[in-house]
Known about the structure:
single chain, mainly alpha, Fumarase C, Chain A, domain 2, 2 domains, two-stranded antiparallel sheet, two-stranded antiparallel ribbon
Amino acid sequence: MEKLRIEKDTLGRVNLPDDVYYGAQTKRAVDNFPVSGLRLPRRFIKAQGTIKLAAARANGSLGLLSRKMRKAIEKASMEVMNGTHDAQFVVDVYQAGAGTSQNMNANEVIANRAIELLGGDKGDYRRVHPNDHVNMAQSTNDTIPTSLYMSSVEAVRDDLVPALKTLKATLITKSREFGNIVKAGRTHLQDAVPVRLGQEFSGYAESVNKDLLRLQNAMKSLLEIPIGGNALGTGINAHPRFKKCVIDEIRKITGINFKGSRNLFEGIQNVYPALELSAALRGVAVTMTKLANDVRLLSSGPRTGFAEIRLPAVQPGSSIMPGKVNPVMAEMLNMVCFQVMGNDTAVSCAVQASQLELNVMMPVIAHN
Length: 368
């Protein structure tokens, strides 16, 4: 029989499996939002752990946490950063409250793990409290957009930019390789003037280069984070030096030159940096769609189409026509790009849904 523990929150008692690290508020969110089965990505959870680690160090340095409690929270936060407790982050991406459930999921996991490290039993929040200690000087209002920006910077820097640079280099190589191949240039899909295949590919390479420049500009906005704004941007219940201390710690942990929002109220009301990044990603998708469509058209045939280039055969193309080969990689790329464009539409709708002091749609922005 499963061993249970009982936790209490402001609404009453909640039964939890004793082996889980999340607590009452997370359990209520799981019960309230059984929507998609989707979770926010690993990098977002890592960013949450990073913020909790930085906050513990900042509050500890300001004399607001005992050394023993600080060390326990730090270790638990680092475990979250490293992915040890990913299975404990169980709230659906479609959740209410601007990400309060997601923030409390992190607070409860870290608190219960810290309690365990101190020799206590999970749920004994007299030792380490999710709100009073792990979430000290923070709010969902500032930690969720900060997690969004931090995880986005890391994803673009580590995944997308290297991939686009590789693609750019490959296209440049191909433009040189195809430099002596003369073909028909076309406008309106009608013959125009001769052009070299290498010239076409040089255009593709420069399009990718401009996408990289647009991404760099979007990244600059993401480096401005609203942590320290606490509720609404007021900094209420935070030490006057907390904002500077926590951002300094985030810089040390990540090695990225994050800086505080110039105006914390604006930084929490609006998540325009996410909109800028999403627009840049849509731009990449448009570029890739153009490239995929051109490749599909130029490889059409082999007897009755353009047949100016030949794509490698990677799989049979038909269940009924033997020997048929399709441009499946280009078609796959098209579909990925269409999804990115759809994501951008969702982000645009969610960003414009901000009202008064807060945008409550941040989880779906982070998801898309």
